Amino acid sequence: MVFHSTYAQKDSVKIKQLEEVQVLSSFQKTMQELPLNTTIINTKVFYQTNQNSLDILKQNSGINIRTNGGYGSNADFFINGISGKQIKFFVDGNPVDNLGETQGINIVPVQQTERFEIYKGVVPVELGTDALGGAVNIITRKESKDYLDFSTAYSSFNTTKTNLQFR
Fold it and tell me: What is the CA angle 112-117-151, rounded to 5?
């Protein structure tokens, strides 16, 4: 493309010809460009730590989590003070409600996730839900290279947690 620009200099007009101009545009919007109150947590930095999903999620503003016990126990999840059925959980866009009662967000190992997408308030249409308070979408790892992850944690009352994942 060739563009001409003109500008006045005292009593004369000069024309400047540009060699080449490239106009780049993206059609696919990223999560940061959407008009939603969204927080994205990259979990790759937590692979070598002893934190679980709830520990990572409750570090964000507006999120409060109350558990009734240790690892795997029931957890009450609050986004900006709203909880219960107004908050939905997803794994790769699929509702966790469809997976059964025992499959909660509190037992998902961090090493099996790529990122957490937290929607506060309005939930995108792609998730197709009526969650008024917000939603959490867990995106799982889809790496094409081979890997082996092994972690174990030991805590009080002789409690251990072990995770083995490989491809």
Answer: 20
| Residue in this structure with the two tokens 């790769």, named with its chain if needed | 92
Question: What distance separates the 2 farthest-apart alpha carbons in the chain?
Answer: 88
Mind listing the pLDDT tens digit for each residue in 65-116?
888 776 667 778 888 888 878 888 888 888 887 655 555 677 778 888 899 9
pTM comes to 0.68
CA 36, CA 34: separation in Å to the nearest integer?
5
- The DSSP bridge partners found for residue 75 are 67
Instruction: Determine the Cα–Cα distance for residues 136 and 101; give it in Å rounded to an integer.
Output: 17
Q: Give the fold, CATH level 3, of 31-166.
A: Ferric Hydroxamate Uptake Protein; Chain A, domain 1 (2.170.130)
* Contact present, 39 and 49 (Cβ < 8 Å): no
Q: Dihedral of CA 112/114/120/126: which sign?
A: negative
Tell me the two tokens of residue 69.
Answer: 């016990």
Q: Where are the domains of the chain?
A: 31-166
Q: pLDDT tens, 25-72?
A: 655 555 555 567 788 899 988 887 778 888 888 888 888 888 877 666
